[in-house]
Model the fold of this input.
Amino acid sequence: MKNQWISILIIGLTFGTAWAIRGQFGHEQGAAWAGGIGALVLVLVSQRRDWYSKVLLIALSSAIGWGAGGMISYGKVVGYGRSIDFPNAAYGLLMLFVIGTLFGLIGGGFTGLTLASSNDKRVNWGCLLAEMAAGGLIAYSFLINQLEILMTPPRSEAWAVCLGAGMAMVWHMVRNNFYSPLRVAFFSALGAGFGFAFGNFLQIIGNLLEINFNMWNVMEYSIGFFGGASMAYGVFTTDWPKESLVPERWENKTAVLLLFVFIPLIVFVNSRFYDVLTGNTDDIKNLNEVTHAAGILSAIIIILMAAAGWVKTVISGNSFGRKDVMFLFLLYFTVYIFISYGVTGAFSGLFHLNHHLYVVNLIVVVVLLGMKYPAFFHEPGLDIKGYRWVLYLVSILLIILILTVILINTHGELNGANSRFPNL
Done:
């Protein structure tokens, strides 16, 4: 039993690190890259040969699922948690729980659906995506346009789109008896939700203690660690088909293009590298941190990564083995770390402690992966009784409220604090 928890720890460390790096880039594309990394290590830890064959599809679905939540704005919500009164501070932490839950629900759900897809029972992705798109539009129109239930005014209220899409996904799973992915979606939702709220708590405490560290990065690491670990727990305590659906070669090639070309390209174009190389530097703060050399080298590294991923996919065909998956994982992860170093000024001589910790986390993960700990629990099942989920949810909400009480009694007025209820 202890060894299985080490396997879950490996995924938590990886996902936490990738999500912390995502903080340098933000938005959907940064979350998508992190989601892909998390899925790659999940497949490695599972040691299931049939999952190796469709590792690219699993990574792509995880990237899309976790990336979808990147449309949600949460900057002002973080500020609510810094308030000195209970209603505003509780609102901040609870809304971060909601946002993290939406990240995990869709991310874990998409990952689980790809794991569950088999020759006997395939996922109708076209139908699912259409239902989710409709659900997102309906929820946004009803909650935002009609009822005007605003979480982050005056910023984007895209959380309602994710809520509607997530509810549609859950309903699709229930109708089609995809209970294994549903269980994974619920666990990852609760884990990511708690991780985001707890991360805000850690961020504020770290600032109060004047810890010389990027505490925003700690908050990002927290949602990744708890979200990834809980998703892994859901996967490894659940029954799955004995044999998975083997993807067509065109599916693997499409997946590698999206993972290793499209997502990194969007990350690069939306980074400071692209602005420097194109001369659009008016809005860049600390311009001296980013050099032309860093931008050019990063572009070359991304191109080489894409080429290496493509060649590995073409050579492997549909016969991916553990070494192939390890190669893709290390390639995808190390380039993400490298780009993070470059965009924060490493080529100008600026190094940050949190970036060095990314490397330490990677080394620890690689060492633990080499030991091949068992992942699946001895008696996995499909117990998703409603009262247990209610108990889990209530317990997490009580913990968040206790954290709120602790916060408001540890500080006075803080910079960056927002007030959602100014008259209270």
